[in-house]
Write a structure and sequence with these properties.
The structure is a homotetramer of 206-residue chains.
Chain A: E1 8-9, H1 11-28, H2 44-52, H3 55-79, E2 85-86, H4 87-102, H5 104-112, H6 117-143, H7 154-166, H8 169-178, H9 183-198
Helix pairs in contact in A: 1-3, 1-4, 3-5, 3-9, 4-6, 5-6, 6-7, 6-8, 6-9, 8-9
């Protein structure tokens, strides 16, 4: 199943395509924060107050920005372990990118309706689907061991896949559920997830 | 006609340019799904109902997302067979990218007017033109055989070109026509085309 | 002035950055064509008529799409002749990209006000500035001959620079002026310029 | 800490991701300049006057365009000195990109409210945070000397880091403060900063 064989993809072009999607999403997120319209354009008070009112959108944007960066890091680490990209791996990656490219919508929704449990849960559900795609992509690789580079221990990879299930969809589903108690609990969970990944742990290297 | 000769292009930069267009289109598609404005920002019922009303847009977006991924796959497989890019090949590729970069418009149109045959047909016509560009690009390569890498069988490539006509513009034109019977038949056809490509068949490898 | 020396840039990263800008501009252009809002969402007549009313925008978009592709081709051919990128070359390239990244604005303006000479002239003036940047970039290279690769004949390059002045800013300024006689003469000139470049001539290879 | 070791990143993919963000931001900036709506579409006077009214937005856009180019240049020069990217360096770079990707917002804000000190200060504060990230990123590298390529003098790098503090956040904070005297003083400072970098000085090569 060497590079160039029918049915496989160049890892380079798949990574470039994915990186393109990540870079675009991370930059498009800010477009949802729009310049406020105020009555008197020269009033500093009015402008300052309407900028302060954008705080929920800024919070929502920062959360998504660092989350997409964490997804990029995980994607980068994962793809470095692959020898080549087969048909199935390509489409699991496309499914992952589908949910990643959807992120601007729940981000804007949560920014607009931060006090509404539906908006906050929607964010968690989309992120949960995204994290689930990571798990399913890894499971496809476990079932097709030849996709892994020789120096990667298949057993360690399988362990990492279990962690990916435990630290991926589960916290997001918990966050989505917590939104019905209080939206701010969800937001705290959504912010904690990238923060957990940014400060490195041993489990991340799997 | 070696790389670097006057009149030819670096395959790398043409692929990077094309990949950029694909990655941007696939991510821009979601911008057409806008956060709904509701009367009472804290009403979960109202927000849930207005999110449910976005379903046609989501369906339209998912269809286009996977379609653009299929186009990327076909583009990737095709360009891997080329030794170099001449003037004509560059401009057929540009024509293909013209229709690809237009996809957000019919996607949004179909998302907004899913029950309107004009909107549904418009989607099929644009996709049909896109698929036709693939066929014309391949025909240009058949007429300039030196563009193909030596290990590619010109006869097999010519067969694949016929398949590209049969499985490309024709189903989209059928979908565009079916919209006048019932728009959902078109949508089913538009969804079936990428699904057909995602589950691999022998004809794809040509 | 070898790659890696202080004051020079990696040609690879400058080309990647430029290609990114080209790919994004070429795809953003279509965002200016918005789905029309109609009274009765199921009326095929009304939707067909409002789509037909988008024709000036589509014409404007197609013109700009192929123009940006021609700019990319010229950029690609030009940069292939350079041994390295110095400080001045980088900033002339940035000036060129400034005008390229501005193209969506005059394109949308001309699409909205095709019958207004101001809109049509504005398009020509922006394109003229863009073409002028190409000329000034080339002149910088002539004055710093060490930037050219050894196998490039400096005399032929200087001739090509004169052509770049003649076939670049001049036709666009002519187009901008013609808009005051009749906007459609301008549009014909703007369309003719990329068409002239798409069908190859000997002067292009300089 | 060689390339490929656990905990490090491929410099290539981090640069590609960053370049993607820079290229997208530089091109998105123009989207904030929208085609004006006028009463009589064929009136050249009305259109010319409403285009002239866009001048503050154009000024704001040009300032940000060249500023992002200067950031790209600094990023390019900096990353060329690194042997590899560790966890901390990646996240300082992500923080830098967070502020870079935010630039379209203060740019549009300043374009809309050029006479309002709040808008003008906001621009300086965001740019100051961006410049501060550069300084913190460099400080991380000083503390982890193994990240620098062998031929880079650590002492010279430390000097350059002090310059990065002096010529980075400080002028932007000065600009933000000056906005309360007169917004045009701020704008002059914001424009002067990229102009200073565009015309090369010895300190830049550090």
């Amino acid at each position: 199943m060497a590079e160039g064989e029918a049915g496989t993809f160049s890892r380079g072009r798949v990574e470039t395509f994915s990186d393109g999607v990540f870079a675009i999403i991370v930059t498009l997120l800010v477009l949802e924060i729009r310049v406020p319209a105020i009555g008197n354009p020269e009033s500093t008070n009015e402008l300052a107050r309407s900028l302060a009112a954008l705080l929920p959108k800024v919070l929502s944007w920062v959360t998504s920005f660092f989350t997409v960066c964490v997804i990029w890091v995980n994607h980068h680490r994962l793809f470095r372990m692959f020898r080549c990209i087969d048909h199935g791996l390509f489409w699991w990656n496309a499914t992952l990118l589908l949910f990643v490219s959807f992120i601007p919508f729940p981000t804007a929704l949560m920014g607009d309706y931060l006090a509404n449990p539906v908006a906050v849960s929607c964010y968690g559900l989309v992120m949960g689907c995204m994290a689930m795609s990571f798990f399913l992509l890894r499971r496809h690789v476990i079932r097709n061991g030849a996709l892994l580079r020789e120096e990667i221990d298949a057993h360690v990879f399988a362990m990492g896949t279990k962690y990916a299930l435990l630290f991926g969809p589960l916290p997001y589903l918990a966050g989505a559920a917590a939104g019905w108690m209080h939206p701010f609990i969800s937001l705290a969970i959504y912010l904690a997830i990238p923060v957990y990944f940014i400060f490195p742990h041993s489990t991340q290297d799997v």
